[in-house]
Amino acid sequence: MEKILIVDDDEPIVESLKFAFKNQYKVYLAYNSEEALEHYTNNEISVTILDLKLGNEDGMELYSKIKDMNPEAVVIIVTAYGTIKSSIEAIRSGVFHYLTKPIDIKELEFLIAKGAEVNNLYKQINFLSAESREKYIKDGIIGESGSIKSILNTIEKIKDIDSKVLITGESGTGKSLIAKAIHRQGNRRHKKFYAINCAAIPKDLLESELFGYKKGAFTGALTDKKGYFELAHGGTLFLDEIGDMDLGMQGKLLQAIQENVITPIGSEEPIVVDVRIITATNRDLLNLVKEERFREDLYYRLNVINIHMPALRDRPEDIVPLTNYFIYKYSRLLNKEIKKIEYDFIETLEKYELNGNVRELENLVERAIALVEGDVLTKKDILSHINKDEKSETFINKKLIPIFVGQTLENIEKKVIESTYMECNYNQRETAKILGITDRTIRNKLKKYIEQNDKNQ
Ligand SMILES: Nc1ncnc2c1ncn2[C@@H]1O[C@H](COP(=O)(O)OP(=O)(O)OP(=O)(O)O)[C@@H](O)[C@H]1O
Ligand SMILES: [Mg+2]
């Protein structure tokens, strides 16, 4: 059970909160700073709910002490003195959220659940210890998901045998990485690994690239040239984007891999080759077979072992470890010291539609590290590089706020405006744009909220 700590000097409130949450959480109570710090130190508290007005004590001071002990502490501030201004200042200094009294239990419940999630995220963010980093860097394949584990397991089984491997999956999912890993881990590792992108080499050149040619075989063939099959002898040939190979070449490839023999262009003498063949494609080969654009016999020859790389959206649990790894990688490469990663940095990446898969995630992290000011990564470091429209659609819409039946429209409007304002890093103009209202309206509304809060004090 997750543990929460409630700090308030008002006994009836504390008791009623305990009653409200005792079935979901292990609840610790504190009526003053001293008790609060004691609970905080001795128990692994996920979320702290702190009333700013603590008898004669200053809740903000207690808050600072907790944050000194644990900069990642998730604290929800409750206050009767909730002017937007002071709350915003509080949030700027790392408060997770604030609530004004009287407490809406449902809203608090929502915030605690969210806070517990954030707390878990923090725990994972810096999980890469020095030893595990070394391990990761050696293998180069990061992933916690069942699918990555099962792929690693398959690699282990097939690394030393020569069965042909077809790696499928969307662009940027790690197909090339896996091909290299199979070679590096297998018993051909001391021999050459060549990767040939069949889509990048012009149709007419592919044959001579793969099989080589004899001097004088065609105009421009001034000397003999070895093809990749010969160069990779004893090693591995990785044919990437195999789906883009034209039909004529497919026939020649089929012959070569069936007989383990190639004939350079312009030569009469076949050469025996010993090459492990790994292929990859982001296209649907079976469909190409149906359309008669890919030879069926070749398809079955190549697809003895199929490794399918799932898209990142289908294995979201890999995003945190991958992000950790890329932060580590690029902070070293770019010589930047990153001291802290805010949970919203990871949260933003988790919500982002990473259609470019791992490659896109890697680029976003590299760019954030290259351009970060200071040594803390926050969601701003991702957001500021993406255009506004994309941003409002991708992020703002996905952030939830609790709205319950029976609230006044004015109240709901206030919640939407305040939380969008926070999401926009307190930028009025941007908030207005996203909400589709004028700068003037937003200015007036925010002013009104501050006045209302002042009155409630
Ligand atoms: N599981 C992973 N762990 C660490 N890095 C990864 C992982 N998967 C992919 N990457 C990195 O993401 C980038 C893209 O991966 P890769 O080039 O292997 O993808 P691909 O599927 O071959 O893409 P394409 O279809 O465009 O050729 C590379 O920099 C790679 O190192
Ligand atoms: Mg690739």
Structure description:
- This is Sigma-54-dependent Fis family transcriptional regulator.
- GO terms for molecular function: ATP binding; sequence-specific DNA binding.
- It holds the Pfam family AAA_lid_14.
- The structure is a single chain.
- The chain is of the alpha/beta class and 457 residues long.
- The chain has three domains: 125 residues, Rossmann fold (3-Layer(aba) Sandwich); 164 residues, P-loop containing nucleotide triphosphate hydrolases (Rossmann fold, 3-Layer(aba) Sandwich); 86 residues, Orthogonal Bundle (Helicase, Ruva Protein, domain 3).
- 49% of the residues lie in helices and 15% in strands.
- The protein has a five-stranded parallel sheet with strand order 2-1-3-6-7, with helices on both faces. Strands 9-12-15-8-16 form a five-stranded parallel sheet. The protein has a two-stranded antiparallel ribbon with strand order 4-5.
- Strand 13 and strand 14 form a beta hairpin.
- About 1% of the residues have low confidence.
- The structure holds adenosine-5'-triphosphate (ATP) and magnesium ion (MG).
Quick synopsis:
Residues 141-370 form the Sigma-54 factor interaction domain. With 457 residues, this protein is of the alpha/beta class.
